[in-house]
Amino acid sequence: SPRSQQNPTLVVLLPTQSRTRQGTDLK
């Protein structure tokens, strides 16, 4: 997809933030 090629950082940061939030909630 062209979007992921234009902003690869956004694609990586989005899932990373969701994982961090879940980990914080579990703690």
UniProtKB/TrEMBL annotation:
Protein name: MYCN proto-oncogene, bHLH transcription factor
Residue ranges with Polar residues bias: 1-21
Organism: Homo sapiens (Human)
Origin superkingdom: Eukaryota
Residue ranges of the region described as Disordered: 1-27
